Amino acid sequence: MRTETMKKQKNLTFTSLVQSIRDINEKLSIQTSRAINIGLTLRNWFIGYHIAEYELKGADRAKYGDKLLDKLSHELGGLKISNCNRRQLYRYLKFYRFYPKIVGTLSPQFETFIPESTEAHKKVGTASPQSNSEHDNLLQLLSYSHIEQLVDIDDETKRTFYEIECIRGNWSVRDLERQINSLYYERSGLSTDKKKLAKSLKRETVKTRPELTIRDPYIFEFLGLKPAEVMSETHLEDQLLDKLQSFLLELGNGFCFEARQKRILIGDTHNFVDLVFYHRILKCHVLIELKLAKFSHENVGQLNTYVSWYKKNMMAKGDNPPIGILLCTRKDCAVVEYALAGMDNKLFVSRYQLELPKKEEMQRFIEEQMKKSRENER
């Protein structure tokens, strides 16, 4: 044994050193990712459990009736507890009801989260090996964002199908959502060659990586992180946004910085606006999106959606409709587009053209910054 150890030490090379560190980093990243995901998933399951218990046995439950989730959401929001709006609370409740047997997989350390007087307390750690394995897979291999997609499926057979396929294929959340939306379950049922369908699907899917799971919006809120700390796509984009933010503030034409990577929830989707300013002369919000790619109408559509959301949800009395600025880059060419969400006030449009930076000015600025960035990389 000692001889083998000495051999290993003797054969230690720089390449093996790099490989060892790489292996450690990869394995511990996966473990950390799983631990965080399990913590968040169990937190949401326990919330669902307690709501279900209250609905059944709450002494004053009749006082709230159908307004329970609204009232609860309001109280939890006041306590700054993240992701507890009415819709989310309802999902947590469904999660508990769809997967009640998770209680059997819990270790004794979680007994304190369940009142001793309840039936569920007796079931902690009592799952059979088969069901234990099934629900362990759910907790170990799927993020809560995966589970959120699953609990929106009311049909048990269909939900189980996607659960199994997602775990087996190591799907990302986006892939799971895409397969549900493209009716993979129904197509699989109608397909005469299911193996061929599965193979074609495998080529299209992107496997989940630990770092992508950690960047999940639910995860960083759970950890108390700000979106800007984890959501910037690339180092270059981050640099450009820094410069752009300073550039607009230096213009001194009424720009007041408000937010960066501003998170907005549209339906069930988390979206992030790169930069948000309030223009005190124009009296409106100015939303800026930077894309390290060539111009596309999809980008305009995305920005226009953000502008429309701000118009509906953030405009205060006396405000003018918000404005969106889209910056797209492709090599040395920058494209600047202004998005006006249905704005028909001609006087205001004329005024914004005077107060905001000219397209040529913005284009020149982006091109200069891209050039400097490439020079610094050499």
Summary of the model, kept short:
The chain has 378 residues and is of the alpha+beta class.
Task: Provide a descriptive summary of the structure in words.
The chain has helices at residues 2-10, 14-57, 68-78, 86-98, 119-123, 129-141, 144-151, 156-169, 173-181, 184-190, 194-204, 210-214, 217-222, 227-230, 235-251, 297-313, 346-355, 359-377; strands spanning 255-266, 269-279, 284-291, 323-330, 333-340. With 378 residues, it is of the alpha+beta class. The chain folds into 2 domains: 19-214, no CATH class; 233-377, Trna Endonuclease, Chain: A, domain 1 (3-Layer(aba) Sandwich), CATH 3.40.1350. A 5-stranded mixed beta sheet has the order 1-2-3-4-5, with helices on both faces. Strand 4 and strand 5 (333-340) form a beta hairpin. Helix 3 packs across helix 4 (86-98). The protein is globular and about 70 Å long.
